Amino acid sequence: MKSIGAKIIATFTILLLVVCGCLSFFSYRAASKALIATIEEVLPEKAVDASKIVREKLNVFLNIIEVVAARDRLRNMENSWEDKLKILNAEKERAQYVDMGIADRNGRLKLTSGQEYNVADREFFQQSINGKTFISEPILSDDKGGLIFMTSAPLKDDQGNIVGVIVSIQDALILSDIVKGITFGKEGYAYMVNDEGTVIAHNKLDLVMNQYNPIEEAKKDQAVAALAELHKRMTTGERGVGDYYFQGINRYMGFAPVEGTGWAVAVAAPENEVLARVSNLKITAALITLSCLALGIVTCIFISRSLSKPIIETAGYADKMAAGDLSKDIPAKLLSRKHKLGLLA
User: 122 with 129: CB under 8 angstroms?
Assistant: First the structure.
């Protein structure tokens, strides 16, 4: 009879464990999905904000070259190269350009460094000779010793006719400096790709210098296939979100296009940081389950004792009666019970 209490406790403990465990599990799953949905909404918004920051910085570059292009001594094609060279050198030093130069209408570009090139087929020249201020894709230049990009603007005479193009050559790592200032949480960062999915700005400069492109890399290494798919989406001008595995870490990424370019900005963060609240929630759910289980066990012990004690006591009287001992009266507290225990007494 003494095992009745233990059986009641064991039965209710198992029942409580199942109920509390199920409630905690489904609560955890629901909260996890809600948090992931929030992250998938926040990251693209952060990427949009980042793309606006990049666009503003690019506008500064373009505004500077436009201001320089408006100087009379530069847009006067009859003015001597020596006089123009003084202005260009002063501007190059002030803005810390790699180089500056002027191209005539035929695309013959003369730089302050003394180098001359035919750039008639280059996109920056074609855009600016047709009246547009332009910023080029970063390219690897052996002559300039690294990655560079160009800003260019049309030179116009007093009648508004385009008579040439002014060009600034800048270190492309400036773009990485821009995105370094964009963060997300403790370990999240931003980076930028061109219209082919090649990394052109990143806090890991080796990816920039090596012109890393996961779309091409995925042809040899399927480990970066998820990242390659995200880069493909970025090249289409899409705004979106996704997750991927890169260099031993699972990450979430939001991305958005940079207005007026074929570029896109991504904001990425490690999965363990993004989902840190989910991990905390898992611990909280486990603690709540254990607390409810402990409270339930205490309650079960109390209930089992209140049920088993009168049964054991009544059984004791029955044993005495079976042995022929009728000297003991059954207590009134047992006889007065309204349920089956009272009937048994």
Answer: no
Chain length of the chain: 345
Map tokens 């009641």 to a residue.
8
Q: How far apart are CA 341 and CA 318, in angstroms?
A: 13
Residues 6 or more apart whose Cβ sits within 8 Å of residue 54? 175, 178, 179, 192, 258, 263, 265
Give CA angle at 205 (247, 230), nearest 5°: 50
Question: What does the DSSP assignment read for 202-222?
Answer: -SSHHHHHTT--HHHHTTT-G
pLDDT tens sequence for the chain (345 residues): 446 667 767 777 787 777 777 776 776 677 777 777 778 888 999 999 999 999 999 999 999 999 999 999 999 888 999 999 999 999 999 999 999 999 999 999 999 999 999 999 999 999 999 999 999 988 888 776 688 999 999 999 999 999 999 999 999 999 999 999 899 888 899 999 999 999 999 999 999 999 999 999 999 999 999 999 999 999 999 999 999 999 889 999 999 999 989 999 999 999 888 776 666 666 766 677 777 767 777 777 776 666 666 666 666 666 666 666 565 666 666 555 555 555 555
> What is the set of domains in the chain, with CATH numbers?
1-62+176-310 (3.30.450.20), 70-171 (3.30.450.20)
CA-closest candidate to residue 176, choices 157, 198, 201: 201
């180089």: which residue's tokens? 99
Task: Encode 38-84 in three state secondary structure.
Answer: HHHHHHHHHHHHHHHHHHHHHHHHHHHHHHHHCCHHHHCCCCCHHHH
